[in-house]
Write a structure and sequence with these properties.
Oligomer: heterodimer
CATH class of one domain in chain A: Alpha Beta
Largest interface: A-B, 28 and 22 residues
Number of helices of chain A: 9
Helix content of chain A: 25-40%
CATH topology of one domain in chain A: Rossmann fold
Structural class of chain B: mainly alpha
Number of helices of chain B: 9
Order of helices and strands of chain A: HEEEHEEEHHHEHEHEEHH
CATH topology of chain B: MetI-like fold
Radius of gyration of chain A: 21 Å
Distance between the termini of chain B: 43 Å
CATH class of chain B: Mainly Alpha
Largest sheet of chain A: 6 strands, mixed
Order of helices and strands of chain B: HHHHHHHHH
Radius of gyration of chain B: 20 Å
Shape of chain A: globular
CATH superfamily of one domain in chain A: P-loop containing nucleotide triphosphate hydrolases
């Protein structure tokens, strides 16, 4: 009896659980299995990263957590309850930022709050979050006037304004330059420290995953399965260019590499391969490093 | 011709003709807007409607609207309603087509972004679908207005009424070439003024705000 209770309690504490989730897509030449029996348990306040080759279904999995898509088999649960429809408690931040061009910055940030509270209150909340992402000066600017990094910031503020318990990020920084991305990594880490939200972060950038994640899941090429899970036990705040991050990234990259090769063989000719020995390079540039 | 133009304005026949024509087109055009945007929304939203009446809409759009006049006269008789009917048939289909294509071409990411923030039902339409389709609707409005103007002129030419088209007709009957040309100039000017000052500006503003200027 006691055991049962403690089990139940454990389940409640487990904020997000993905249970044997599969997803089929109907394509022109029949059904395609995109995800194959994926199970992941995510604790409250954890920072989780998914990495994998393109088309492995990591975005699909994220969308299922969001409730934008439904699994063919299996369930996704939040605090024990099955996720069926989207909710403002699980907000997605997309790669394209997906801001609404007909609204200015502050109206974008308060978009999800409109029916819930009066103008004054939602303005106040929106300003708080806009200041948090350091765009307080731009509340009256329009979307087409913003740079890529600023758009990402607005998208983050817009999601945070809803105070979701889960933040889902689908390659949010993929289109940004490396310097902007570095800074946004620091900021998202800082925000995560403050809000203690659960974050699921999809990326194909291994270093980004190691830089940010508590745990990193490597997906296989289609059909997507969990190939390996890495616990990143590095102190925070981390530095993308620190040795330990690079070391972890290298380990993960090795796992990923196999999958990317598999994926490439499907996409380009089957006899494709890349062997280091086949690469011709002048010995002079090596400066003897090959010895 | 210039004399005829000045005379026309002096003895107020042009002003009366203009005001009658503009009044007609305003009513007809407003009805077309409501019908066109409504129909475009429905066809863009429900696939079954698109599959059934979608091709009918584009088919009917090919028909010059003045061809509706005989039918309109049979239905309504020789009156205002008949001419309104012709205007509406000329304008509302092109508005509907533009609205529908606007809705169909909304980037799906907008809808997903809104849904993930918990927006659903009517809100999704009024706060995302409609504004996202607005630039395309504006293009339809502009197109619809010029169709409406042409339909009105054709309609007024063909049946007795006090519009600008009717002034053209009387000019012909009186063998008064300067008057005919003067009226034509007025028709072109009114068309241009509305098109350039109102609809093109509206379209341009919307497109630049929506970040669609290339």
């Amino acid at each position: 009896m006691k055991l049962k209770r403690s089990l139940k309690q454990k389940k409640i504490n487990m904020r997000l659980s993905i249970e044997k989730v599969s997803k089929n897509f109907t394509a022109q030449h029949g059904k395609v299995l995109a995800l194959d029996e994926i199970s992941i348990q995510i604790k409250e306040g954890e920072f989780i990263c998914f990495v994998g080759p393109s088309g492995c279904g990591k975005t699909t999995l994220l969308n299922m957590v969001a409730g934008l898509e439904t699994p063919t088999k299996g369930v996704v649960r939040q605090s024990g309850e099955e996720i069926k429809i989207p909710s403002s408690d699980r907000v997605v931040i997309f790669q394209e930022a997906a801001l609404f061009p007909w609204l200015n910055v502050i109206q974008n940030v308060e978009f999800g709050l409109v029916r819930r509270m009066n103008v004054r209150k939602r303005r106040e909340i929106s300003r708080t979050f806009l200041n948090l992402v350091h765009l307080g000066r731009f509340e009256n600017a329009y979307v087409h006037q913003l740079s890529g990094g600023m758009k990402s910031r607005v998208a983050i503020a817009r999601a945070l304004a809803l105070n979701p318990s889960i933040l889902l990020m689908d390659e949010p920084f993929a289109a940004l330059d490396a310097q902007t991305r570095d800074i946004l990594h620091e900021e998202i880490e800082e925000i995560w420290f403050q809000t203690k939200q659960t974050i699921v972060f999809v990326t194909h950038n291994v270093r980004e995953a190691v830089r940010l994640g508590d745990r990193v899941f490597v997906f296989t090429a289609r059909p997507g399965r969990i190939k390996k899970e890495f616990q990143i036990d590095l102190p925070r705040p981390r530095d993308t260019n620190s040795e330990s991050v690079v070391l972890y990234a290298k380990l993960i990259q090795q796992e990923l590499r196999e999958e990317i090769e598999k994926f490439l063989k499907e996409e380009v000719d089957r006899d494709w391969s890349l062997k280091k020995a086949n690469l011709l390079r002048p010995a002079g540039i090596d400066l003897g490093s090959g010895i | 011709m210039a004399k005829a133009l000045i005379w026309g304005f002096k003895d107020r026949t042009f002003l009366i003709g203009m005001s009658v024509s503009i009044q007609r087109i305003t009513i007809g055009y407003l009805i077309s807007l409501v019908l066109g945007i409504g129909l475009g929304f429905l066809v863009g939203r429900f696939k079954i409607l698109d599959e059934t009446i979608g091709s009918l809409i584009s088919g009917l759009q090919v028909l010059p609207s003045i061809c509706w006049l005989p039918l309109a006269i049979l239905w309504f008789g020789l009156n205002e309603q008949a001419i309104q009917f012709v205007i509406i048939m000329g304008a509302f289909l092109s508005i509907a087509i533009a609205t529908e294509s606007g809705i169909r071409n909304i980037p799906p990411i907008y809808l997903r972004a809104a849904r993930t923030m918990g927006i659903k039902g009517i809100d999704l339409y009024t706060r995302v679908v409609f504004p996202a389709a607005l630039p395309s609707i504006a293009t339809g409005m502009k197109l619809g207005w010029s169709f409406a103007w042409r339909s009105l002129m054709a309609g007024e030419l063909l049946f007795v009424s006090i519009g600008l088209g009717h002034l053209l007709q009387t000019g012909r009957e009186l063998n008064d070439m300067p008057q005919v040309i003067a009226v034509m100039v007025v028709i072109v000017l009114i068309g241009l003024i509305f098109d350039q000052l109102l609809f093109s500006q509206l379209e341009k503003r919307l497109r630049s705000r929506w970040g669609m200027t290339t």
